[in-house]
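Archive maintenance. Older records in this collection stored only the sequence; we are now back-filling the structure field for every entry so that each record is complete. The fields below show one back-filled record exactly as it appears after the update. Entries are processed alphabetically, and Ribosomal RNA small subunit methyltransferase G is next in the queue.

ARCHIVE ENTRY
Title: Ribosomal RNA small subunit methyltransferase G
Organism field: Bombella pollinis
Length field: 192
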Amino acid sequence: MHHVSHETEAKLAHFTQLLTRWNEKINLVSPKDIAHLRQRHIEDSLQLVPYVPEGARITDLGSGGGFPGLIVAIATGNPVTLIESDQRKCAFLREAARECGARVSVLAKRIEQAVLEPADIITARALAPLPQLLTWARPLLKEDGYCLFLKGRKTPDELTKARSDWHMLYNSFPSHTDPDGVLLKISDFRRV
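Back-filled structure field:
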């Protein structure tokens, strides 16, 4: 379990209430996940916090219900751009960011249409296979930046596929919340 300040804990509790309320109208997480929201989604997202330096600018791909981008913004105070194409999810993200005091901007676009100042860090969770994530991330990331991707049991296959098209440096850290999951930190990546 990731330890956060009392202030952050209060914001995360408020976020949980908001998401639970909004989830009745729009599908942000699976209804069966609501009971396990803290462990399954929030704690999973908080795993990124130790890898985020103070002040680093983050872009989160396919933010959905705010995982991991909005949670990282709440926990770190860092500026985060959330890219999400679903307008209803964007409405939730803006409301949750405002109510939780997160430094967030929401970009209601498809990832491949996003034009942004390059970020220090790109994050994503349960979004797409690694080769696709790298394709989306490269134009949005500073040359010396890195990606933090929460991935599942197919990670070894995805790494093999990605290495056929990409040169990259990566570290893989076991997930604290999913026995099959890993946190991938990828840097210095470019097409082969």
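Update note: Helices lie at 6-23, 37-46, 69-76, 87-100, 130-137, 155-165. The chain has one domain: 6-191.
Entry marked complete.
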